[in-house]
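Q: For a teaching handout, I want to show students what a protein-ligand complex looks like in token form. Below are the inputs, and the small molecule is DAU. Please produce the holo structure.
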Amino acid sequence: MNKAIIVTGGAGFIGGNFVLDWLATSDVTVINLDCLTYAGNMENLASLEGDARHIFVKAGIGDSVVVRGLFEKYQPCAVVNFAAESHVDRSIHAPEDFIQTNIVGTFRLLEAARNYWNTLADEDKAAFRFLHVSTDEVYGSLKKDDPAFSEENKYEPNSPYSASKAASDHLVRAYHHTYGLPVLTTNCSNNYGPYHFPEKLIPLIITHALAGKPLPVYGDGQQIRDWLYVVDHCRGIRRVLEAGRVGETYNIGGWNEMANLDIVHIVCDLLDEFRPREDGKSYREQITFVTDRPGHDRRYAIDATKIEKELGWKPQETFQTGIRKTIQWYLDNPEWVANVQSGSYRDWVEKNYAERG
Ligand code: NAD
Ligand code: DAU
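A: Here is the structure, written as tokens, with DAU included.
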């Protein structure tokens, strides 16, 4: 077994941040397996060009031949599985890809990992880890005064996306229980930060505001999410990989519940400060309330006590510091924004928002 890890989905938002963060502090080679869907972007990894510690492989996690070959060739000590279809609204319009990647893909990746793991010597077998990156959405929706999700909450997924992630979590659990594969699962809340694809709430609001477009708020805007700066999530995953107990799941969150409308107001107010509109009015003027997401979960909240107590992880950014960094990053990277807003991105925005009136 080598000092290499396979990271899947490492050209996406969180996976890309993870790879950059990993290689900033470690010389363990990253085999980055990503099939580059609309959400995958090699520009996220531009700073690694020519870096021999980063090996990019363009293929899907469901491509068993390629994946088996990677295990054989690189003999990795761990897999960190980020690859997924990740956007709830897209899962409502077209669920099929979610089933294929999140369920079938994860199953095939687990099979390849299990076959490889069975060939290892005892010591390497014990050291190997399969870390599956999942979401708080598998727990369903909380009522206003419910306690935050702990690892003991039952699974009650409500969207095709969260149902497909829940299915993948169950497969990961079963591969440990049945075959002994040393797995770990993390369930995290909403991330934000650099390289966030601008069809998700925060980067959509920033980019639409700057472009003078309407800022679409679904329903009454009082849905609550817990927000975590992406680099804090990456650090949490590393900590679980290093020291998490095999077979366990760890919730990761920012202790930062906020209503969507409050998020939109904060983004507008910071843009008013950083890049005021030419007419002197606030970006809040661009807010429009649009038809709600079908089956929209009302509230998510994460109880991160377990990872904090067991593994000593805590978020380093508050929302106030993280959102300022994020907005500054989008202001500093207009080319990245322009390049991801390709034809297919524009098609999606037209489709999603035209239907909302
Ligand atoms: P993303 O959509 O930005 O990126 C997904 C990446 O996976 C892309 O690079 C894409 O090309 C790649 N990919 C998709 N299908 C693939 C396949 N079949 N084989 C290989 N690569 C494939 O997603 P993200 O927001 O970075 O989320 C990453 C992971 O974290 C997902 O598993 C998601 O469920 C989970 N998660 C996300 C959040 C969040 O707030 N974004 C929060 C908690 C958990
Ligand atoms: O909770 C973790 C999840 O967070 C991850 O598992 C998902 O991969 C990730 O996409 C994210 O899901 P959400 O559905 O919470 O994220 P999104 O950015 O799409 O929406 C955040 C909230 O904002 C949600 O309540 C819907 C609302 N929203 C979203 C968009 C795109 C709007 O009001 N207007 C919008 O235009």
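A: Two things your students might notice: The mean pLDDT is 97. Residues 86-88, 135-137, 189-190, 200-201, 204, 216-218, 223, 225, 260, 293, 300 surround DAU (ligand 2) (CB under 6 Å).
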